[in-house]
Amino acid sequence: MADELILLEFWPSPFAQRVKIALAEKGIDYESKEENLLINGKSPLLLKMNPVNKQIPVLIHNGKPICESLNIVQYIDELWNDQSPFLPRDPYKRAQARFWADYIDKKIFSTGRKLGMSKGETQEEAKKELLECYKLLEAELGEKTYFGGETFGFVDIALIPFYAWTYIYKKLGNLNMEEECPQIVAWGKRCMERETVSNTLPDPYKLYDFFLELAKKLGGQ
To answer: To 10 degrees, what angle do helices 69-79 and 91-117 make?
Structure first.
């Protein structure tokens, strides 16, 4: 019997996009179930499958849930290991990849959201912090094609959903990524040449409109 895969997701979520890219890279078919948290709230299925954090994404594999995006990406990589691996085999390089993916997880989303939803001094602090984060990532990338070298992998999957946020950074935070972090932008354009990425990431203008709507609901911009 074929594996049953269901992904609980929401189209603007960079964390859900990571999982969709990982599944596409492995050529794995799945059923997508949209969780529009702004309109419908959290479904009974989501609350059942992720009772601890009650968040998307959740990958349900043959009735068993796997939660947290980076955890799901590693699960996919380990289970379908006959395809190109996301994580390097060398233990040190694996540890480094996990370190940078965790850094992205803890810094980029929260700081980018703060940049777009705040004003004045708070926004300037967020802009400075976000730029420092990207400068560190740019230094780690160096002259490599991808973060892992010539192979699109774990750190790339962790970061690439935020490439669609560059328009938000510019419009709401006056942060021009092309000027400030040209290597990151060039890397993002290379990633977008992959159908697994370009077919997954949302239109930046649509994402910007969603972000504005979300900010209004939360009392931001």
So the answer is: 150
Alpha carbon distance 111, 127 (integer Å): 8
pLDDT band, residue 217 (cuts 50/70/90): confident
DSSP one-letter string for 76-121: HHHHTTTS--SS-SSHHHHHHHHHHHHHHHHHHHHHHHHHHH--HH
pLDDT tens digits for 28-50? 999 999 998 777 778 999 999 99
pTM of the model: 0.94
Domains in the chain, CATH or no CATH each: 5-79 (3.40.30.10), 91-217 (1.20.1050.10)
Average pLDDT over residues 85-103: 96
- Alpha carbon 205 to its chain centroid, in Å, reads 17
